[in-house]
Amino acid sequence: MPTAKLKPTKLDPVWERITEEAEAAVAAEPLMGGLIHATILHHKSFDSALAYRIAMKLASPEMSEQIVREIADEALAETPDLAAAARADLVAVFERDPACHRFMQPLLYFKGFQAVQAYRLGHWLWERGRRDVAYFIQMRVSEIFGVDIHPNAKIGRGIMIDHAHSIVIGETAVVGDNVSMLHSVTLGGTGKEEEDRHPKIGDGVLIGAGAKVLGNIHIGSCSRVAAGSVVLHDVPKCKTVAGVPAKIVGEAGCDQPSLSMDHLIKSGSVSP
């Protein structure tokens, strides 16, 4: 007999939409019923489903699903902002990724979303001095998703990492709210210095595929970094930079590049 959907305990439009989509998906493709019931329909809240998904993805013979789940449940119960950030990330993926047609897709299938939520758990551990567990989470995220985010990095909400292969974000990096980046982006250092050595990315920035932003530099809010660029110096807000090394080639082209996801440099926008 099919398992009945557990009703939300409080108003949560994101979770209600996910459960509605899940029921429709099971009806359309019964072979997916086991995964969808275990990941979504057996849970009474988004927080519970998120903790379960993180645990199932990160578990290994070295740390069981139950232990990871207990850590995730503790983090989400103590710090509601973690789930709020996850909701913002999920909506960001849905709105910006043309391949995302349902709210449930990032939770079930998209490693960029899943990797960021696992990083958030590692960051929560890091801030509480639980460094070895945080390093373990970082290691598993790198192994499973091909995304290496140091648990001390600071990342805002509304983050969309498309494809998310070979992402590297260093220990002292800061990423603002509503940032979008594509695969093979590096926010790295330039040497062996041990102090503040990684980039600071402003709100609303769009970083193209394969871009490398290196050193303790600032990328101004609502700027664009073109695909394949190597950025070594500060970028003012609302500018587009491109090249190796990157130079300013024009204005950002719109108020919110990370939301429009427009990577093209328009003719006439290039600075003389």
UniProtKB/TrEMBL annotation:
Gene Ontology MF annotations: serine O-acetyltransferase activity
UniProt key word Repeat: yes
Family membership: Belongs to the transferase hexapeptide repeat family.
The protein, known as: Serine acetyltransferase
Catalysed conversion reaction: L-serine + acetyl-CoA = O-acetyl-L-serine + CoA
UniProt xrefs under Gene3D superfamilies: Hexapeptide repeat proteins, serine acetyltransferase, domain 1
A GO cellular component entry from the record: cytoplasm
Enzyme Commission numbers on file: 2.3.1.30
